Amino acid sequence: MTDPSCTQGSWVVGTKAVTIRSKASATSTAGGVLYRDHKFTVHKTSGKWRYITDRTTGVKGWVSAKYVYRTAGMCLD
User: Fold this and answer.
1) How many CA atoms lie within 13 A of 28 on its CB side?
2) Beta-bridge partners for 50
3) Is the pLDDT reported for residue 59 higher than 90?
4) Could you tell me the sign of the dihedral formed by the alpha carbons of 39, 45, 47, 52, in that order?
5) Model confidence at 72, in pLDDT bands (50, 70, 90)?
6) Any long-range contacts for 38-47 (C-beta under 8 Å, 24+ apart)?
7) Residue 71's pLDDT is what?
8) What is the mean pLDDT of residues 37-58?
9) Following CA atoms 2, 6, 7, 13 in sequence, which dihedral angle do they give, to the nearest 10 degrees?
10) Distance of alpha carbon 53 from alpha carbon 34, whole angstroms
11) Which residues of 40-73 are buried (b: 16+ CB within 10 A; e: fewer)?
12) For residue 16, is it left (φ>0), alpha (ψ between -120 and 50) or beta?
């Protein structure tokens, strides 16, 4: 059970931009670009890939986990 006083960090893009792919593969078709200032939702993970929805543009697809990550969370006593 997760401690209710602990919060997870938000998802961020760790580079200027990352390509959104149709499949979890660097050689798959590009469907868009996720920029650093865009808000996005991570739905699932497959290996070193994250399936996301770019809430700024509505584009869905896969991005490399190398470029998107959660910021550090915090717990309160």
Assistant:
1) 14
2) 45, 63
3) yes
4) negative
5) confident
6) 38/13, 40/11, 40/13, 40/68, 41/11, 42/11, 42/68
7) 80
8) 94
9) -90
10) 9
11) beeeeeeeebbbbbbeeeebbbbbbeebbeeeee
12) alpha
pTM, two decimals, is 0.82
Location of structure tokens 């869905």: 60
Residue with tokens 């919060």: 7
Q: What is the pLDDT of residues 21-40, one digit of tens each?
A: 999 999 999 999 999 989 99
Please give the structure tokens belonging to residue 27. Answer: 């050689």
- Where does residue 67 fall: left (phi above 0), alpha (psi -120 to 50 degrees), or beta otherwise? alpha
